[in-house]
Specification:
With 472 residues, this protein is α/β, with parallel strands linked by helices. It has helices at residues 29-43, 57-69, 82-92, 150-164, 181-194, 206-212, 221-228, 231-236, 252-262, 336-342, 383-391, 424-434, 460-471; strands at 18-22, 25-28, 48-53, 72-77, 96-98, 109-110, 130-136, 144-149, 172-174, 198-200, 216-219, 242-245, 267-272, 276-280, 294-295, 300-304, 319-324, 331-332, 349-357, 363-368, 373-376, 379-382, 396-406, 410-419, 443-446. The protein has three domains: 7-203, ANL, N-terminal domain (Rossmann fold), CATH 3.40.50.12780; 266-368, Roll (Luciferase, domain 3); 377-470, GMP Synthetase, Chain A, domain 3, CATH 3.30.300.30. Helix 12 (424-434) links the parallel strand 24 (410-419) and strand 25. Helix 1 packs across helix 2 and helix 7 (221-228) crosses helix 9 (252-262). It binds malonyl-coenzyme A and adenosine monophosphate (AMP). Malonyl-coenzyme A binds next to helix 5, helix 7, strand 13 and helix 12. Adenosine monophosphate binds at residues 136, 180-181, 246-249, 268-273, 292, 351, 353, 365, 368, 375, 380.
Length: 472
């Protein structure tokens, strides 16, 4: 009999100690189970349910309720604009909206009450059924729904528990968004599987991290670089057992500074929505700046060169990273063609990341194969979706979007636009309001024409070169 995904919820513990705290509001194990059962009572029988995934206790109760009932939870980004929200609702076929009522949501709404209690008990859910559907960006088009089973999530969390010696003795702290795998899958479902109390800080600010007093901390590199910029908060984290970075490359200077300020090197781990977390450095192993470590238990990795051959694991030869893992997704929802494209004939996932692997099995992520997949603040953003959003503005005739290196965000979205655009800010707000706030360009450059090659294709390298020159 497999262990239920949220196994710690079924482990009798004494007392009313908080198991989950979000922005100062807490629930004990028993309270969470009973509040989530009240949600399960209302959603049972649905196929998929949308969750308004704000950084609030309600989101945790809603997602756990869906999992109890065996209903796929579809977290909707808290900062989603109208077009993105409608796309997720329509594409996922969500039958209910768990959240505050909204005029633009056409399915029945159920408000979530963390104070509700139900004594219903639910049979163990088949680990093969979809547990969550998370929308993530590709290079072009609207975000795709990544279907993750309970089995895949459990495999990734168990691999990390082993690598990090993550146990119920840990207190996990983070303040990451609750609509991606980092904050939601690892940061909430992971904690509930392991049984380590979670303190979600509402926002991932250095001061809130410092005040939380945990043993295990999660952050994206932008969070860690902001922690380093606040040395007294950074020093307060020296009492923690592990600081973990992921979702984007941790710059070596940030790794070094964090090590100097806290007295311990951060642990880095690598993952993707489609694969969950697959590679990590170990609590008791080497932590090498710029490298993300070894495959988790059950994970196999390989590199493929441009010519299609397998690349040597010699620490130097670059290749596209492919992954075989029990934590792989079940496919993109409603999109068998894209699913087939993403997998090799023998069932390995093509990550689209360029990497090297050394003879000892250590991995270094060198970059993305495509310039059109941007990582900004740890968020994955497709250049194509931002370009489409810009083109929907009546004043925009042409648009090209690039990710420019940025010390705070890793990459910053810059949009080159042709058209009689009234002012930059209105265009930025337009994208923030249709797509989502975190996908807005940080800078708009209005130009007479975009550089194109003989085939008419925009030469993004020319734009990137121009940015490089202007930063010198
Ligand atoms: C700014 N704001 C606007 C706006 N411009 N609001 C409306 N319209 C506009 N035009 C407001 C925002 O609402 C927000 O308000 C505030 O300005 C700050 O927004 P921001 O500048 O975008 O936030 P920022 O400080 O840059 O955020 C940094 C960050 C964030 C690190 C906190 O990028 C973040 O949370 N990143 C984590 C992403 C993540 O979890 N990725 C994991 C993907 S999974 P207010 O009031 O709300 O503050 C993955 C796999 C793996 O990658 O391996 O893990
Ligand atoms: P997402 O789809 O949002 O889950 O983003 C996955 C992508 O984030 C990967 O394909 C990588 O490009 C990037 N990523 C995640 N973790 C790391 C890491 N530790 N180092 C470098 N890149 C990372």
């Amino acid at each position: 009999m497999p262990v239920p995904l949220l196994s710690s919820l079924y482990r009798a513990t004494d007392g009313a100690d908080p198991l989950v705290t979000v922005d100062g509001r807490s629930l004990s194990r028993e309270e969470l189970l009973a509040a989530a059962a009240a949600v399960a009572d209302k959603v049972a029988g649905a196929r998929a349910v949308a969750v308004d995934a704000r950084p609030e206790l309600e989101t945790v109760v809603a997602v756990v309720g869906c999992l109890l009932a065996g209903v796929a939870a579809v977290p909707v980004p808290a900062d989603a604009g109208a077009v993105e929200r409608q796309h997720i609702l329509a594409d996922s076929g969500a039958q209910l909206w768990l959240g505050e009522p909204r005029a633009d949501v056409g399915v029945p709404t159920i408000t979530v009450d963390p104070g509700a209690r139900s004594s219903s008990s639910y049979p163990q859910v088949d680990p093969a059924v979809p547990a969550v559907i998370i929308y993530t960006s590709g290079t072009t088009g609207a975000p795709k729904g990544v279907v993750l089973s309970g089995r895949a999530i459990a495999a990734s969390v168990d691999g990390l528990a082993q690598a990090w010696q993550w146990s119920s003795e840990d207190v996990l702290v983070h303040g990451l968004p609750l609509f991606h795998i980092h904050g939601l899958i690892l940061g909430v479902l992971g904690a509930l599987r392991i049984g380590s109390p979670l303190i979600h800080t509402g926002r991932p600010t250095p001061q809130r991290y410092a005040a939380a007093g945990g043993t295990l901390y999660f952050g994206v590199p932008t969070v860690w670089s902001r922690v380093c910029a606040d040395p007294s908060s950074a020093r307060a984290l020296s009492a923690a057992r592990l600081l973990v970075s992921g979702s984007a490359p941790l710059p070596v200077p940030v790794f070094d500074e964090l090590t100097a300020l806290t007295g311990a090197a951060p642990v880095e781990r690598y993952g993707m929505t489609e694969t969950a977390i697959t590679v990590s450095t170990r609590a008791d192993g080497e932590r090498r700046p710029g490298w993300v470590g070894l495959p988790l238990a059950g994970v196999r990795t390989r590199l493929r060169t441009e010519s299609g051959d397998l690349a040597a694991h010699d620490g130097e030869t670059l290749g596209q990273l492919e992954i075989h893992s029990p934590s792989l997704f079940d496919g993109y929802l409603n999109n068998p063609a894209k699913t087939a494209e993403a997998l090799t004939g023998d069932g390995w996932f093509r990550t689209g990341d360029i990497a090297v692997i050394d003879a000892g099995g250590f991995h270094r992520i060198v970059g993305r194969a495509s310039v059109d997949l941007i990582k900004s603040g740890g968020y994955r953003i497709g250049a194509g979706e931002v370009e489409q959003a810009l083109l929907a503005h009546p004043a925009v005739e042409e648009a090209a979007v690039i990710g420019v290196p940025d010390t705070d965000l890793g990459q910053r979205i810059v949009a080159y636009v042709v058209g009689a655009v009234p002012e930059e800010k209105s265009l930025i707000d337009f994208v923030a309001g249709t797509l989502s706030i975190h996908k807005r360009p940080r800078e708009i450059r209005i130009v007479d024409a975009l550089p194109r090659n003989a085939m008419g294709k925009v030469q993004k390298n020319v734009l990137l070169d121009e940015q490089r020159r202007s930063r010198r």
